[in-house]
């Protein structure tokens, strides 16, 4: 039995934990707690699709955040290729933010 074989949920938890290290440069909060991650899909061939949004369309940080996401996932052994896709539906609202993010930004 391969000792390095991880269950799909373990891999997804690892991906989410690594995405929590990606800090939005404007807001200073990670992209997971901001509610910017809509979907994580890791295929058996090692391709990983991250569907995410931004707080505003036309955000100048699109490429920077995509690079940060790819870098954060570099060391996940099951991932061979990362594709970051920005989607705009459903539109992001502050309701997607976690309680932690709202408190950190002073939103009640």
TrEMBL record:
MIP18 family-like domain location is 12-85
Fetch the InterPro entries from UniProt.
Answer: Fe-S_Maturation_MIP18, FSCA_dom_sf, MIP18-like
Query: Which Pfam families does the UniProt entry name for this protein?
Result: FeS_assembly_P (PF01883)
Which Gene3D superfamilies does the entry link to? Fe-S cluster assembly (FSCA)
Domain of life from the UniProt record: Bacteria
Q: What is the protein's given name?
A: MIP18 family-like domain-containing protein
């Amino acid at each position: 039995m391969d000792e390095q074989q991880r269950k799909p949920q373990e891999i997804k938890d690892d991906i989410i934990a690594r995405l929590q290290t990606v800090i939005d440069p404007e807001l200073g909060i990670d992209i997971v707690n901001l509610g910017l991650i809509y979907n994580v899909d890791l295929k058996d061939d090692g391709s990983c699709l991250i569907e995410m949004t931004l707080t505003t369309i036309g955000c100048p940080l699109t490429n920077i955040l995509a690079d940060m996401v790819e870098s954060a996932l570099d060391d996940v052994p099951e991932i061979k290729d990362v594709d970051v896709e920005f989607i705009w539906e459903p539109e992001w609202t502050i309701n997607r933010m976690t309680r932690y993010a709202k408190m950190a930004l002073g939103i009640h």
